[in-house]
């Protein structure tokens, strides 16, 4: 039962070494594949030096395109999707693997710890995604936007073509549930960058809101 870790990465030179190193220690992992999404720094070279196989995209095309390219670059039966900025906390992904490999579920989704006062958002995007998934499938997810997932190959394939931008997880949730796959949310202590409440953060959340709404429109 081969398990490939797919890590889309864009300008993550400062964290990719720790993330790859941690991913390589996970039990059951046969390969770590970093999809460098047109980075302008040396993310690709650093990832290779850390032990990953690197797939270089000629230009930045977004997470959906990166994951699609990664999917087609491996024939692994199981996939572990991780963000490039997890750093050493990527080791926490071990909790996501066993339920899928053992057949308990078809896809696991990482729950991150709630840290009061951290981050600047109001939770609008999460609420939109949560309510949209519930309306489309009848199932309520705590973390519908979490990108840290272990899943059977056919689960990801069921969502092709993947929703674009920040809507990818929302679209994947709905596609998987409608196809009859089982989802399980798993508590972890993973951590990555948190968007703050400055103008960049507000722009980021506006893009998230747009992309999630676009993903939900497909399933009306």
Describe the structure in brief:
The chain is an alpha/beta fold and 220 residues long. The protein contains 8 helices and 7 strands; from the N terminus they run βαβαβαβαβαβααβα.
Task: Describe the secondary structure blueprint for this structure.
Layout: E1 3-9, H1 16-24, E2 29-37, H2 43-49, E3 53-57, H3 63-72, E4 78-81, H4 94-101, E5 107-111, H5 124-137, E6 149-152, H6 153-158, H7 168-178, E7 183-187, H8 199-217
Parallel strand pairs: 1-2, 1-4, 2-3, 5-7
Antiparallel strand pairs: 4-6, 5-6
Helix pairs in contact: 5-7, 5-8
How would you characterize the overall build of this protein?
By secondary structure, this protein is an alpha/beta fold. Helix content is 38%, strand content 18%. The chain has eight helices and seven strands, in the order E-H-E-H-E-H-E-H-E-H-E-H-H-E-H. The chain has a seven-stranded mixed beta sheet with strand order 3-2-1-4-6-5-7, sandwiched between helices. Helix 1 links the parallel strand 1 (3-9) and strand 2 (29-37). Helix 5 packs parallel to helix 7 (168-178) and helix 5 packs parallel to helix 8. The relative contact order is 0.17. The model has no long low-confidence stretch (mean pLDDT 92).
């Amino acid at each position: 039962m081969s398990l490939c870790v797919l890590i889309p990465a864009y300008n993550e030179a400062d964290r990719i070494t720790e993330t790859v190193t941690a991913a390589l220690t996970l039990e059951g992992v046969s390969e770590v594949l970093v999809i460098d999404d047109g980075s302008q720094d040396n993310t690709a070279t650093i990832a290779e030096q850390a032990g990953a196989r690197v797939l270089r995209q000629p230009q930045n095309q977004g997470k959906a395109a990166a994951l699609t390219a990664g999917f087609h670059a491996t024939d692994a039966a199981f996939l572990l999707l991780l963000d490039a900025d997890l750093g050493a906390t990527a080791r926490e992904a071990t909790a996501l693997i066993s339920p899928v490999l053992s057949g308990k579920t078809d896809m696991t989704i990482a729950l991150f710890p709630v840290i009061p006062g951290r981050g600047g958002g109001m939770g609008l995007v999460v609420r939109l995604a949560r309510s949209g998934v519930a309306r489309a499938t009848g199932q309520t997810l705590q973390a519908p936007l979490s990108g840290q997932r272990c899943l059977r190959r056919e689960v990801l394939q069921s969502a092709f073509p993947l929703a674009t931008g920040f809507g990818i997880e929302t679209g994947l949730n709905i596609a998987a549930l409608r196809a009859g796959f089982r989802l399980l949310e798993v508590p972890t202590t993973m951590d990555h960058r948190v968007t703050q409440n400055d103008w960049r953060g507000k722009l980021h959340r506006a893009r998230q809101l747009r992309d999630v709404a676009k993903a939900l429109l497909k399933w009306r």
